[in-house]
């Protein structure tokens, strides 16, 4: 039986396979230079997009709480004026207190000693945009 030239015997087959594997890995590794940088840039872009959406949401959340606090304070002050504890007109006092808290009085209803106010606070601090957080509060004598 004659041996073919260039033929790989069983013992050499493993060595040749390992050599091809090493060459293949080396070529793939050489071709992948810079892929980590592209992945890092893509990750930063995704995180920046997510954070750019969280900013307005956080601002809306804060505006809603500011509106609630302003409405509560305005309703309590207006109820004190309605009961005669403080001088003035209840709705004017409520408007002044809402403005002091960064909001605007958008509604005021007095029924005896009970006063209900509605306060609007601009979202993102821009009065130009039609985005506003609203809150309603009612105050009066206990009982």
Automatic annotation (TrEMBL):
It comes from the Bacteria. Keywords: Membrane, Transmembrane, Transmembrane helix. The chain crosses the membrane at residues 34-57. Residues 34-80 form the Putative Flp pilus-assembly TadG-like N-terminal domain. This is Pilus assembly protein TadG-related protein.
């Amino acid at each position: 039986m004659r041996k073919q030239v260039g033929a790989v015997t069983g013992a050499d087959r493993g060595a040749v396979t390992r050599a091809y594997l090493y060459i293949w890995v080396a070529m793939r590794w050489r071709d992948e230079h810079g892929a980590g940088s592209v992945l890092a840039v893509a990750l930063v872009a995704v995180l920046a997009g997510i954070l750019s959406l969280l900013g307005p949401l956080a601002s809306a959340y804060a505006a809603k709480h500011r509106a609630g606090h302003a409405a509560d304070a305005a309703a309590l002050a207006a109820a004190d004026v309605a009961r005669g504890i403080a001088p003035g007109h209840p709705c004017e006092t409520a408007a002044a207190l809402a403005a002091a808290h960064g909001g605007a009085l958008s509604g005021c209803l007095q029924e005896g000693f009970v006063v209900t106010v509605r306060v609007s606070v601009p979202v993102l601090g821009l009065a130009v945009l039609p985005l506003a957080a609203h809150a309603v509060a009612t105050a009066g004598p206990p009982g």
